[in-house]
Design brief:
It comes from Thalassomonas viridans. Keywords: Phosphoprotein. This is Response regulator. Pfam families: Response_reg (PF00072). This protein is an alpha/beta fold. It has one domain: Rossmann fold (3-Layer(aba) Sandwich), CATH 3.40.50. Helix content is 47%, strand content 19%. It is built from five helices and five strands. A five-stranded parallel β-sheet has the order 2-1-3-4-5, with helices on both faces. It starts with a strand and ends with a helix. 28% of the residues are buried.
Length: 135
């Protein structure tokens, strides 16, 4: 069973995503901000992380950067309801695999889920390659 960490400061968004992904067979963990997400990540080592951008203590981009540079073993998707941000160059930030408008998640869930294994494999291969090059 794939493990997924959902990070959002909105309790209703966390609950919605929890129910959505749990019904598709994911083991889901929850965090309300980036700092709590790091604790949850270290405890459960999820393969996938879905994080809101705007949160207290640590935003979604900072969380993605942290996970990428400290672990580089999971796929991180960023969610936002800010349409302008979806087209911003900051999407090239380290650790962000994809950004999705919050309103599009439910309608595109089968497609989103189908892309996750390939993204995870690519991340794992890249991580092993980097490790081999530093030896």
């Amino acid at each position: 069973m794939d493990r997924l960490l959902i990070v959002d400061d909105s309790a209703s968004s966390r609950l919605f995503l929890f129910k959505l992904f749990e019904s598709h067979g994911f083991k889901v963990y929850l965090a309300e901000d980036g700092m709590t997400a790091i604790e949850q990540y270290n405890r459960y080592r999820p393969e996938f992380v879905i994080s809101d951008i705007h949160m207290p203590n640590m935003n979604g981009f900072a969380l993605a950067w942290h996970l990428y540079h400290r672990h580089n073993q999971s796929v991180t998707l960023i969610t936002s309801s800010d349409t302008d941000l979806l087209e911003h160059d900051a999407l090239d930030a380290d650790g962000v695999d994809e950004i999705i408008h919050k309103s599009a998640i439910a309608g595109n869930l089968p497609e989103l889920i189908s892309r996750l294994p390939a993204r995870l494999l690519a991340r794992q291969v890249a991580s092993r390659t980097c490790s081999a090059l530093t030896l």
